[in-house]
């Protein structure tokens, strides 16, 4: 992976995040604005990135098996990160009683908002498809293992399973099904998917910038003062330790180059944006989730190029 392309992409992302932060100077980042952005990103832009990428590829048996391999690797990596975070937190901060939150924040990343657009930029349509499958693995882990960890009464019910059914997941199933039976939409729809897909990266980065600025001005500041000794743990595990483990495993496995690069990039994403919402749902510490999301996103702008630089220095 060319480090010049990475720095170029990170620079573009950083500028777009700064634009999002600047927007909060002009308008109030309230729930209506938040819902508008998340709806546009999750329900329109991300599905179109997925569909646009799938229909640009010739769906072979090898490509399909590779996609499901990425899904499997995603679940394994996510669970591994959760286990590592939980074990270290229980030993380093047993008195803090935040082991569950640290475990989730250590294992699950922002593979949708940031990961899919970034992989589309760096690795093209095939990378975007694999990134979408990795993000599907994050969703599966989040609403099964993640929800079980946070629940006081351990159970997976119908409402939990319904959370797995979302528009990006439907787009994956729809796109793969039509590609397998070799049916492509009319050119009009392909052009529409391509145009709407181009909104994904800018909207996602604007949202991250607005979220960061809003958290800085409000809750994240208080959370940082309360948990400043513990926040470094999930951030270090998520941004550095887990990617290094993936890099080491990739050195041992004979993975397709695009598969490995996609999995590696997705493994280094900052803590998931849904953390504070998920924690709030299960009466956990949502302020810690918000603070970790904000700070890990800022640090990721530096650790992502660093990790890819390490990748380029290692011969596979």
Automatic annotation (TrEMBL):
One of its GO terms (cellular component) is plasma membrane. It is a multi-pass membrane protein. It is found in: Cell membrane. Keywords: Cell membrane, Membrane, Transmembrane, Transmembrane helix, Transport. The chain crosses the membrane at residues 6-24, 36-55, 67-90, 102-123, 129-151, 163-183, 195-218, 230-253, 259-279, 291-314. One of its GO terms (biological process) is transmembrane transport. Pfam families: Mem_trans. The keyword Membrane applies. Belongs to the auxin efflux carrier (TC 2.A.69) family. This is Permease. It comes from Ureibacillus manganicus DSM 26584.
